[in-house]
Structures are given as C-alpha cells and as structure tokens.
Amino acid sequence: MSTPYDAMWEKLNLDLDAHAGLLQVLGKFYGDIYLSQSGRLKGMEYLDFVLSEVHGLRIKELQDAKARGKKVIGTFCVFVPEELVLAAGGIQVGLCAGAEAGKDAAEKVLPRNTCALIKSFVGFKLSRLCPFIESCDLVVGETTCDGKKKAYEIFSDHAPVYVMEIPQMKNSCDRELWRAEVLRFKDRVEQVTGNSVTAPKLREAIRLVNDRRRVLQRLNRLRAASPVPISGRDVLLINQIGFYDDPVRFTENIEKLCDEIEGRVKAGEGVVSGETPRLMLSGCPMAVPNWKLPYIVESSGAVIVGEESCIGTRNIRDLVDESGESMDELLNAIIDRYMRIDCACFTPNTERMDNIVKMARDLNVNGVIHYGLSFCQPYAIEAFKVEKALKAASIPMLSIETDYSMEDVEQLKTRVEAFVEMIY
Ligand code: BJ8
Fold first, then answer.
1. Sign for the pseudo-dihedral over CA of 252, 258, 263, 269
2. Which of 18, 196, 236, 269 lies at 20 to 30 Å from 205 by C-alpha?
3. pTM to 2 decimals?
4. How high is the pLDDT of residue 418?
5. pLDDT tens digits for 39-82?
6. In 3D, which of 11, 85, 24, 84 has the Cα closest to residue 52?
7. Among 177, 114, 111, which residue's Cα sits nearest to residue 143?
8. Strand 278-283's sheet: what is its strand order?
C-alpha cells in the first residue's frame, strides 16, 4: 500500500518493502499493547499520533528543517549533551534501537552474543530500515560498554560517526577527561552546524532541556499516586517519544497530560485498582518498540510505577544548574550534571544502588524487576549488587535477562506471575 511518504523514504534510500513490513508489524504490535488498554487518558492521543507518524511526519519535519540548513544529530546514549546541539541550532534525535528487524544483517558483522540494542542499530543501518539514521548529519557514539564502543567502528563504515569518550570512574581526573570531551564535542557540533555556541544560546538550550526533564519529573510524581493514574506502558512510551519529538511541543503536550492526570489523582481515580501490586523496573534501557516486558508485567496483575533506566528516571532525575551566566559556568554546569549519570558502565557505581533503593521506597513498590538485555555484562553483573541492596531494604527483586525476540514471552510471563503472587 502506498503512502504519502514513499517518495521521501525512497530518497532516503530505505528498503521500501522491508520498511513497509516493519511498519505493519509495529502497527499491529502497538494496537495489541497500547490501544487495547482500557481507561487511557485523553492526552495519550497525542502520543498515539506521534508514534503513528514516527517515520512519517517527524521525518518530514526533519527533512524540512534540513532543507532550511539545520543539521540533525543522532545519539544512542543519554551522555550526549543535547544542550550543546540545540545551542548550535541543531536537532538531536535519539536513535531507538529497540527492534529485532535487521538482526540477520547485524549478525553478519557482529558476534551473535552481542546485546540486542547494539545489533538493532547496526541491523537497522545495514538493512536500510531507519529514516532517522538516514536523516543524520552526524551520529554520536560513546565509549560506554565495550560492545557499543567496538560496534561504532563497524557502524562508521556506513554512517558519519563521532565518538565521545566517557569516563569509567568519577575521580577528579575523570571529570577533567569529561570536560575535555564536552569541549571537543562542542567544537564538532559547531563545525557540523556552522554555528557558534554562545552563552545566551546555551542558557536558553539548558532551560529548554530542563523544561522537558521537569515535566517528566512532574509526570513521575503524579503517577506515584494510589490508585495509579496511568499505566507504566504509557509512561514508558512518553519517555521513548521524548527522545525524538520536538522538545517544545513535547513538553507542552505532556504538561497538558499531567493536568489531566492531576484531575484523576484528585478524583481518586486510577487506571487499575488501588490494590494492584506496584512494581518498578530497573536496568537496561527499553527503546521503541521494546514494550515486551512492560506488557507482560501489566498483563500479569501488576502495574509499573517507575523505570530506573535511561529511558526513565536516569535521563530526567538531574537538572543542569541554570544559575550560570558565563560560558565557562554554563559548561561546568553541563559537565557536572552529566557526570552524575549512574550508568552501570561506571566503577564503582554505588550511587546507582542508593538511587534504586530510594526510588523503590519513594514509590512504595512491592517489588523490583531488574531488566538486563542478554549479553549486557555491565547490567548483568550489577544486578547482583542491586539485589543485595534491595534485600537489605527488604524489597524483593526478580532478575530477568531477555532480548527482543518473542520466543520467551510465555516463559517470562510465568516467572513474572509467580513473582507477583509471591510479593503480594
Ligand atoms: S548511560 S545505560 S544509554 S550506555 S544494553 S549497549 S550497556 S551491552 S545502553 Fe546505555 Fe548510555 Fe549507559 Fe544509559 Fe551496552 Fe548493555 Fe547493550 Fe547498553
């Protein structure tokens, strides 16, 4: 079936047949997991629309912006400071990497025992399935885990890649390294966009990105109510879309949605009953359209009330200090904020344990599900420490390792149901 975007996708050199197949699967999956929910908020219609146009209208917006001279910068990690891209007049998009399509192509150039997220972004590029990647003037990688670090070498044969070095520890010398990397990135962004990052523009960009974080913080505070006013699936979707939607429009729409949720909370209404077991997810990021585990959890009699993940609180917990005036003060505020990210790629990473326990207590959860993508060593190893920290706080944890395939759905469902029964 032809669409108004076919010519655009063809120009972007997508494999049109494979891409049509992907959109069809995505639409069906979305219908089953999202549109089938009852008691959804009216404001979710905006998210439904954005998702339905994920490869359509949003890509057209990017192409139109590019025609006006704007540059598009793609990222895979919350370490890349969007503030610098926006201050240079660029557009930053998170490249999602949450689907299995392209896996066969990826496994021709990567070992099979590579995490699904890495296979996904390599596979999407090699299979010509992602109009976001094809719209990028620069794709920014980072030296977080070894798998990503080495995969960018392969990816760079096919796309314009720039890699940021991320420290592995948090001593003063590591901050110096990170400072140098942020400055190097600023130079590169200025070079790609052709625009200088000035202090006023950087201040404005810091406020804009903080505004998006603030509205997502508001959403997280509201969803913590009992009965829970919005499903975990919907909040995950909001967080996912926040990575590629226009930041101003996104913030405005989520603000409206929060007003609606606030009304629900005041009325004591929930999307599920107040008796429903409350769970928190913790671990690897869940990129679009990786909704498998949230769907399993929420169809097993529980509700998700928090995501300790980069597509969740790790991305929004800390704001950049807005009080600085000079370029140096603003850059230092950015450097400090990003150094607080508690990714499992750091050693030691004790603040993550503290953050998880605090979050689980604040959200009054009955249990935590630790989510690791198969072959992700940083999160798999850290899962043992997370379990220990939660046990000391008398919070039960279930550790799950999976990938993007649907083969283990029944097995996961059995484990999640048993966990829910045990904790409640
Ligand atoms: S700051 S979590 S977005 S690196 S799942 S590719 S770690 S083997 S995604 Fe991440 Fe940045 Fe950290 Fe966040 Fe490697 Fe693990 Fe795969 Fe991962």
1. positive
2. 236
3. 0.98
4. 98
5. 999 999 999 999 999 999 999 999 999 999 999 999 999 999 99
6. 24
7. 177
8. 303-308, 278-283, 367-373, 397-402
What one-letter code names the amino acid at 364? N
pLDDT at position 51 is 96
**Residue 10 dihedral angles phi and psi, to the nearest 5°:** -65, -40
Centre of ligand 1 to C-alpha 166, Å, is: 12
- Report residue 21 as tokens: 């197949």
Nearest atom, ligand 1, residue 344 CA: 12
Q: Which residue's CA is minimally distant from atom 11 of ligand 1?
A: 77
Q: Is the pLDDT of residue 1 over 80?
A: no
CA–centroid distance, residue 284 to ligand 1 (Å) = 6
Residue 342 to residue 340: CA distance in whole angstroms? 6
Pairing of strands 303-308, 397-402: unpaired
Residue 181: is its pLDDT beyond 80? yes
Token pair 């079936």 is found at 1
Q: Which atom of ligand 1 is nearest to the CA of 76?
A: 3
Convert the pLDDT of each residue in 202-235 to its tens digit. 999 999 999 999 999 999 999 999 999 999 999 9
State the CB neighbour count (10 A cutoff) for residue 319.
16
Token pair listed for 287: 């990129």
Q: Which residue CA neighbors atom 3 of ligand 1 most closely?
A: 77
State the pLDDT at residue 22: 95
Residues 6+ apart with CB under 8 A from 281: 232, 293, 294, 297, 304, 306, 307, 308, 309, 312, 368, 369, 371
Q: Please determine, for residue 96, whether its predicted confidence score (pLDDT) is greater than 90.
A: no
Across 284-296, average pLDDT: 97
pLDDT tens digit string along 124-151?
999 999 999 999 999 999 999 999 999 9
Task: Write out residues with Cβ below 6 Å of ligand 1.
Answer: 77-79, 115, 117-118, 144-145, 147-148, 284-285, 310, 341, 343, 345, 373, 376, 378-379
DSSP 3-state helix, strand, coil percentages of the chain (rounded to 5)? 55, 10, 35
Radius of gyration of the chain (CA): 21
